Every structure is written in structure tokens, then in C-alpha cells.
Amino acid sequence: KKLSLRASVTSELVLDDVRLPADAVLPGVVGLRGPLSCLNEARYGIVFGTLGAARDCLETAIDYSVNRVQFDRPIAGFQLTQKKLADMTLELGKGMLLALHLGRLKDQHVIRSEQVSVGKLNNAREALAIARECRNILGGNGITLEYPVIRHMNNLESVFTYEGTNEMHTLVVGEALTGIPAYR
Known about the structure:
The chain has five helices and two strands, in the order αββαααα. The protein is mainly α. A two-stranded antiparallel ribbon has the order 1-2. The two termini are 34 Å apart.
């Protein structure tokens, strides 16, 4: 009964008093480093995936605004609409540059988990803001399934919080900056 990420199964997993034999422990891993490295890979994917959703929303809003006529001209001809489109394009471009930079660091095997947190935090936040603004440009049509915007917006609402909430990524970045873990 989900309204977003409907293609994926969401479940609760409860482990209580679980004991594992020594041979079931991840080799060479101490603490949560191993399991969290898997999360880091998923978060890295989010850095790029969010931009794809934002791009589709923006392209839809541009096309819609060029073709939607109001007061005898396309709404793309109004200053506020152009400002919204320009601002979203800038944020999308900055997110792409961040993702590209992180990809290069990953290729060089020097990327750090807090850098992935910066990418996930920024790109999920900006993609969601872009989707919301695009939905606004589409007006009443922005909530219909005739256009992909509301679907992306709903999915981005979930992406904003899964694989670590924006608050947790903010604290990871804060610790990297100050050396003081605020979440413990």
C-alpha cells in the first residue's frame, strides 16, 4: 500500500538474540564497516539516480511550459517560469558536476564515505526540490499520471530518507568537518 517506490518490496526484518558461528563473520571486517560499505555503494548510486529523475521532471516542465498557453502565450514566456527553469537547470548541473567528481574519485579508489554522504544529501535534496517546482509549473496537471513528475516526486520523497536520512548524512558531514560525532 505504498505511494512511492512501488516496484520494490518493503519489509521489516527483526533479528533478536542472533548468534553466528565464527566462520559466518565477514572476513577482515571489524564492527559495522563491512555492512556499511554496502550501504555506501547504494548511496553512491543514489547520487546519480536522483539526477535522472530530476532531469526527466525538468525536461517535462520545459516541454509543458513551451506548449501550455495561458493569456494568449506559452507560460514559458513568463519571467517567473523562465527563472524557475533556469534555477532548476543550474541546480541540476551542479549536481551532475558533483556526481562526476565523485565518480572520478571512486575510479581512483580514493572516495571517502563522507564524500558519498555529501553527494547523496545534496542530490536527493535538490532533485526533490526540482521535482516539486516542476510539479508546480505543471499546475493541476502536475498531480496526474499523464506526466511523470508526481511519480518522480513521490519516489524522491522516499529516496530522500532511505539509505540514510538527510539528517544522518548531515551529521556524517558535520563529523567530517569537526571531528566530533554528534549522533552518539
